[in-house]
Design goal:
Protein name: Alpha/beta fold hydrolase
Largest sheet: 8 strands, mixed
Order of helices and strands: EEEHEEEHEHEHEHEHEHEH
Shape: globular
InterPro entries: AB_hydrolase_fold
Strand order of the largest sheet: 4-5-7-6-8-9-11-12
Strand content: 15-25%
GO molecular function: hydrolase activity
Structural class: alpha/beta
Number of helices: 8
Keywords: Hydrolase
Distance between the termini: 50 Å
Length: 279
């Protein structure tokens, strides 16, 4: 049977849960007419289909305002759609003062890039190049920001270069541990988590290391999808690899880490340290 948790990662067969390439960005569709995206207060919206040569097209948006302090390249969770993320974009804009650039994953919002591992590996550098070619990355600091499963594509974008810092919210590269968190507690002792060989080539942790930029990891202490213990282990592994990684644990659960003052303070402090601050 198929077990779909918050991140939609697992296929259960007997007592083995296999995490495969289709788990990264499961096929999803909005029901009814997609809502209009309203930009944050003071921001203007540019919405386009961007060409990724050899891969397809991606539906992307840029929200910009006069006097913004840099550019935030945002990768949402694996259940996200650009058109339904207005509230989160408003929160990010108020918190950072940056321009916000976001995009839809394969099979969503008109994005035609296939959800295959080879295409997903190539998508990070292609997105970074496309955002630059569109004039969406202004001079000044550029941050990649990944929420939940978006940490992997955000790190892939950062590894392509031209990024000042990387923010990873409620995310970790330990896919088996995250998968185990999504199995109901009473079943965990009986379920073995396996990662499909093909998916292992989508090297989340390697992308973070190769980006060679400071990294902020933020996790809610009550997060049950990507728990603080898993993120702490991720942070320690990155530090051992020579990454300038800072871990901040804040109140809240999955998706709540930047709702409170502690999360906002952590992100603002990191942006200030890595070249821009907020205005």
């Amino acid at each position: 049977m198929r077990f779909i948790g918050l991140a939609g990662l697992l296929v259960l067969g007997g007592c083995t849960a296999v995490v495969d390439q289709g788990s990264l960005f499961p096929e999803m569709a909005l029901s009814g007419q997609p809502p209009a995206l309203v930009p944050p207060p003071g921001y203007t919206l540019d919405e386009r289909m961007l060409d990724l040569p050899g891969l397809g097209q991606v539906h992307a948006v840029r929200m910009t305002r006069p006097g913004s302090v840099g550019t935030l390249l945002y990768s949402g969770g694996n259940g996200s759609f650009v058109r339904t993320s207005g509230e989160r974009f408003a929160r990010l804009a108020a918190m950072t003062g940056a321009d916000i650039v976001a995009y839809d994953y394969p099979g969503r919002g008109g994005t035609t890039v296939p959800a295959r591992v080879d295409a997903l590996i190539a998508m990070g550098p292609a997105l970074r190049a496309a955002f630059g070619a569109a004039g969406w990355v202004k001079p000044g600091p550029v941050w990649a920001y990944g929420f939940s499963l978006g940490g992997a594509p955000a790190s892939n974008i950062a590894a392509a270069g031209g990024v000042t810092g990387l923010v990873l919210e409620a995310t970790a590269a330990d896919i088996p541990a995250v998968g185990r968190n999504m199995v109901p507690g009473m079943l965990r002792p009986f379920v073995r988590i396996e990662v499909a060989d093909d998916l292992k080539r989508y090297d989340y942790q390697g992308y973070v290391v190769r980006a060679r930029v400071p990294v902020l990891l933020v996790v809610g202490r009550d997060d049950r999808t990507v728990d603080a213990k898993t993120v702490t282990r991720f942070s320690e592994t990155l530090k051992a690899a020579g990454v300038d990684a800072t871990l901040v644990t804040v109140p809240g659960g999955h998706g709540d880490a930047i709702d409170g003052d502690a999360g906002v303070t952590a992100v603002r402090g990191f942006l200030a340290r890595t070249g821009g601050g907020v205005s």
